Amino acid sequence: LYSATATYGRMASDNEFVACRGSGIDIRRLFLPPLSLSLLVAFCTFYFTSFLIPGLVQDLNRIAREDLRQFVVQELESPKRLGFAGLPVRIYADRAAPSRKDPSAIVLGGVAFLEIGEEGYERFGTAESIVIRFTRPDGGPMAISGKFINATVFDERRGAWGDAGDQEFGPEILPQQIRTKLKWLDLPELLHLRRNPQDWPKVATALDATRVAILANEYRIRVMNDFRDDSRVTLFDENAIIDLRAEEAFLDHENNSVGFHDVTVTEQRDGRTRTITGAGADLSMSRSPDSGVMHGVIRLTGNVTVTDSSGRTVRKGREQLAGVAVDRAMVDKWEAVTDAQLLNPRENIATGDAAEVARARAIREAGKFVRRVGSELHSRLAFSISVLVLVVLGAALGITFRGSRVLVAFGISFVPALFVIVMNIMGRQLAEKDGTVLVGIMAVWGSIAVVALLDVWTMTRVVRR
User: FRET pair for 338, CA 20 to 30 Å: which of 26, 185, 279, 419?
Assistant: First the structure.
């Protein structure tokens, strides 16, 4: 913009245009160089924003994942200490050094660790050392695995300390160190996600929560029907039979679960029997974060007592029995429902208040994401095309104000450029909202149309005169 304004202002100041017209040269041919240059710049701008910059961000993420040993050392020295997103453990260590036996591993010494579950911390303890390995199985994403050496662990559920010895963990796939953002996606990825919003992590999570809520609603109705027969429910998992008896059962619509009062649970597992009593309990549905398998979870609260086969009784504030098996046919029925069906408001699928709320949230999340993708595409394309109208306007204003006032010409031509940028940003934000999509798109492209009209007026009236 500045070079077009200065060059054509100088040419006008030196009467070059008068000389060209006197030689019979069409003035419009003199605008082919800035027009050609602006086309090149527009193409480069679109290529940078849609391909080059997203590729560089992915390369940075790859480099960060390759140098994970340095990442571990830096995290150990940070106030939050070492933790990996997706892994329920936080590690404290006095020192870190490369392993002499394995170049792909590091050894942490003077270790304390904390394991965190759904309800809070589950285990904590110390270890003589931890060997951490970073591998890339089958050339795929980076994974972490390792071993605790001479670990001593306090189990919160058992309420006791114990020697765990050497324990292996992993491998676990490590998440990206640089979180994926919409603006760092390239053009093919944006077009794919616009057609398939269920592939975006946030939408996929909302859809998964919807399936869990739908299945939980059907499951709790089945449990209530079983309970009404004889005030008891028999449940199973892979290694146990769980008999639950209660004085009363009710549907908890808020948590999409079944609640019980005055509960007695008899658990037979591996030839041993435990009897657990509590003032209340609830049976809810969950999905295993590791395997993705649906299962039921029983939580007992209020004066919980656990009596084992030997007659020893332990009192607790709460007790949780996870891994209750769910009828596979019922799971397959709802897993067969496609994402497109769940995201289509016209499909009559979900039953129960919690399921309807979860599905409505997924539909809103998908709609919001599709609008964001659309606004990003319009913004990138409009920002690139704006180069054409702005450079032509700069050249025309340079001729109008001549070289003696080139800074004035640039200042005036900068105002439309600022106008286009501000309208682009504002229009993109409006296009992301449900009720102002059209207004936002009109703002993005309308600003370019206004500058284009200003180009036509300047070239046909002002420059010709």
Answer: 185
